[in-house]
Amino acid sequence: MFAYLVNRLLQAIGVMLVVALFAFIISNYVGDPINNMLGQDATHEDRARLRQELGLDDPAPVQFGRFVGEALRGNFGISYQMKRPVSHLIIERLPATLELVFVAAIIALVLGITGGVFTGLRRNAVSSRAIMTISLVGVSLPTFVIGILLIYGFAVLPKSCVHGVHLFGTLLFDCADVAMISLPSFGRGETVDIGAWQSGLFTAEGWRHLILPGVTLSLFNLTLILRLVRSEMLEVLRTDYIKFARARGLTDRAVHFGHALKNTLVPVITVAGIQIGSLIAFSTITETVFQWPGMGLLFIQSVQFADVPIMTAYLVMAALIFVVINFTVDVLYATIDPRLRADRVAAGRA
Amino acid sequence: MNADRLRDRLAGAGLGRRWARLRASDLYYSFRRSPTTMAAAVVTFVLVVGAVFAPLLAPHTPFVPASIDINDAFKPPAWAEGGDWRFVFGTDNQGRDMLSTIMYGGRLSIIVGFAAVALAMSLGILLGLSAGYVGGWYESAVMRVADVQLTIPGILLALLIDGVVRAILPPNSKEDYASLVLVVAIGLASWPQYARVVRSAALVEKSKDYVAAARVIGVPSLTIMLRHILPNVMGPVLVIATLGLALAIIAEATLSFLGVGLPPTSPSLGTLIRVGNDFLFSGEWWITLFPALALIILSLAVNLLGDWLRDALNPKLR
């Protein structure tokens, strides 16, 4: 186990070094840092002095070493566009993204697992088939289109209500009812400061603002988990120990949840863990659609304006998050399943 | 005269034989057996033809300033109150016909999608095939890079590459190279899938007798790779490419929607949705929802084709 851990850790460090090298190349050779700091009109002497001060005349390996050292201390330079340290910008924006990802993960897990169990147990019911068909659409819709459709359905339509909702000539909901489901579609609403952490989780407005972006971000992973739980349930329900549990006369409830569901959870936890990385990636899109003031929106703006320091910082941070998640999942997996441990070490050596 | 006729007859016979062979194939059989696939194929065909031949088929020329009239702006779809049958899906803020802009936009989306898939496929085949055939440290280096890349979601990587390339380009030429930047970003972000599949298939093929035989009679390595191994690993590559086309079209639309893709002067479906999004709140829903609908239908149809191809080419699932 120890050898396996060390092996994985070395790999993770290797990946981070490669990513850092890319970030270093981007930040040093894309655009001209001197021009960006002094402007076009600076004199030749000023340029030379700044080059000297910033150490841009040193050999590349020395500069790379310094880059890694600065990155380890969280220093990624100053944003071209906002003229502020990148680390401050990211720390300001981080809580918004983490809260959004957290809410989306909870939605995906809760609805995905209940939906998967339901469709797995009643595989032929009309409602199950309907859920499966809808989930197919959910997988194939691009995130930003889901966001726009939700904004249209829950923010635009309720406000433009004139006649109420009719079905075959009878009034189903009048405009007062419709106004009740109207949801905010941009920003975070009211936030509460807890130290440096601006939180939207403690106000009703904050929660209302979280609903649409949270659902948008969770939808892909929700369908993924739903389908995974369903197929695992179908598999487990066929096994002998479920037949035996039934033969023992256990209640359906005990069989389904005590025996079947428990055994489907290992792959679900793995997939959910890995997918947290994808939630952070896709939060860039969701944040743009809903003007959510998080890291993703910051990153998109940096791409639009070619703001290299923010881009490199985001690259390093995203890679770090993915590497940490993958490492944790690998370790968890090895603890749960000893067979894998032996295989992977052998494969790693080969 | 006689020779010409003979050649025509031979060409006809060749075509006929190909058609007969196609009709007798497993692929054709499973195609006819699946109504969903046939519907998806028809939809894809209609959309692709409508988009590719947009300059010929579109009812209006939305990007010729002289042909649009600002008085036609914000017309709702023809069937809605105040609609005009000249503009079936309504018009946008500048009085451009939505149906025509969608056709032109779809054209760009499809072209960028195809080009990105072609780039990713060529890169993936090149690296995967050589990695599988050569082996050694070269193989582990290529596959390690692919592994690292696969841990980061493709859309994030495409965004990063897009940002870096845009930073390298001189500021005033960004719009000229926008579609090229997109192709490079999406292509570079998605080669590892191809490389992985090609490498593992090449490893299997490499140890077979026909490769050994070719090597014994002195066929050069490059020829063995391209003429002998490559045709045998193309099946799975085609499946990934079809599914990849849907992903590439969505990725292009996403980047354009985020404002780092094609500019509003030559919009793709994603740009149209982005521009139209500004009018969603003032009630002009058709400016954003129709391009979104076109994108959804296009990606869904291509996806269904890819799923069918995967099942049809994989005998284990049958």
Overview of the molecule:
- The complex is a heterodimer of chains A (350) and B (318).
- Chain A has 350 residues and is mostly helical.
- Helices cover 75% and strands 4% of the residues of chain A.
- Chain A has a two-stranded antiparallel ribbon. In chain A, strands 3-4 form a two-stranded antiparallel sheet.
- In chain A, a hairpin with a 2-residue loop joins strand 3 and strand 4.
- In chain A, helix 1 (2-29) runs antiparallel to helix 13.
- Chain A is flat and about 85 Å long.
- Residues 344-350 of chain A have low confidence and may be disordered.
- The mean pLDDT of chain B is 84.
- Chain B contains 12 helices and no strands.
- Chain B is 73% helix and 0% strand.
- Chain B is globular and about 75 Å long.
- The chains are: A mainly alpha (350), B mainly alpha (318).
- Chain A binds chain B through residues 15, 18-19, 26, 30-31, 137, 140-145, 148-149, 151-152, 155-156, 160, 277-278, 281-282, 284-285, 288, 299-300, 302-304, 306, 308, 311, 315, 318-319, 322-323, 326, and chain B through 148, 151-153, 155-156, 159-160, 162-164, 166-168, 246, 250, 253-254, 257-260, 273, 277, 280-281, 283, 285, 288-289, 292, 295-296, 299-300, 303.
Keywords:
heterodimer, A: 350 residues, mainly alpha, two-stranded antiparallel sheet, 14 helices, 75% helix, flat, disordered C terminus, B: 318 residues, 12 helices
Listing every helix as H and every strand as E from the N terminus to the C terminus, the arrangement of chain A reads HHHHHHHEEHEEHHHHHH
Mean pLDDT across the residues of chain A is: 81
As a percent range, the share of helical residues of chain B equals over 70%
Question: Hey, which two chains have the biggest interface?
Answer: A-B, 41 and 36 residues
Helical stretch count of chain A? 14
| Count of helical regions of chain B | 12
Which sheet architecture does the biggest sheet of chain A show? Answer: 2 strands, antiparallel
Low-confidence segments of chain A: 344-350
Task: Give the structural class of chain A.
Answer: mainly alpha
